Amino acid sequence: MLTVLGEALIDLVDAGDHRRFTAHPGGSPLNVAVGLARLGHPTSMLARLATDGFGQLLRQHALASGVILDSAPTASEPTTLAVASLDDAGRADYAFYINGTADWQWTAPELILPADSEVLHFGSLASWLPPGDALIAEFAARAGRGALVSYDPNVRPRLLGEPRRARALVERNIATAHLVKASDEDARWLYPGDSLEVVARRWLGLGPALVVLTLGPDGATAYRDGCEPLPRPAPQAAVVDTVGAGDAFTSGLLGALSDRGVGVPELAEVADSQLVEVIDEAGLVAALTCEQAGAFPPTRAELRARQLAARP
């Protein structure tokens, strides 16, 4: 079992005329959970789901994808909204409506890790927005005593404010994780003027065994303590938009590690050849997601079909 903790919100995507918007289930943690389930992994979601119409849409989307919601609390607050505008390259820019919404109102009794969970992934807005962020950090630290903990800060500058403040929040969570995945944009905003390798080495010094930085169309680079950086190119993709691409990469990364039996003891010692396979598979999951409108990651069958087609 892999468990994902964090927000489940609605992306209202602008059709381009600023008048028509389409509601897509979203939120980085929900996208990761859906991606893992579609890849065939037993996946539980810890998200506070509202009872309003948008909350019902989120619940239906998760269940239809195979995500287990037995541990997801029902929330009386409304669903969080993120209004997304796409540029000519299909990149999304978000404006968030978060005040008083369901995703941040966690209480300690609601945070229960399913007993058979071997992985906990958390991050994004819920990991650094009060009042629930401190409880989530404590919960992740406890979970790390028995499960592999994965973290993605999924930085949103408009919500985080100044990088100095944001760094303290992000580094608090990195210190609880065994695996950190972030984008190059996240790293550059948090540490202006520092190289990506300097940032990755700083994070490794806080405790994680593996840091993976995604580089958009330039692929991703893996960093481990005492090892040279391991860069991998991005697969070719006919990009429709990049909504959910980073979350799909995370799903592919966690799924590939799980398929290979890589847990906490093995993470620091994983061979370069195996790590190449893992990063390449994660990149392909992200590429296939970019070929669809919205955050719709591939199934395991779709992933395997593309892998077979790419073999010489």
For this entry, give a set of tags:
312 residues, alpha/beta, eight-stranded mixed beta sheet, four-stranded mixed beta sheet, globular
Percent of residues in helices comes to 25-40%
Tally of extended strands?
A: 14
Helical/strand content category? alpha/beta
Number of helices: 11
Shape: globular
Walkthrough of the structure:
This protein has 312 residues and is an alpha/beta fold. Helices cover 37% and strands 20% of the residues. The chain is built from 11 helices and 14 strands. The strands form 3 sheets. The protein has an 8-stranded mixed sheet, sandwiched between helices. The two termini are 34 Å apart. The model has no long low-confidence stretch (mean pLDDT 93).
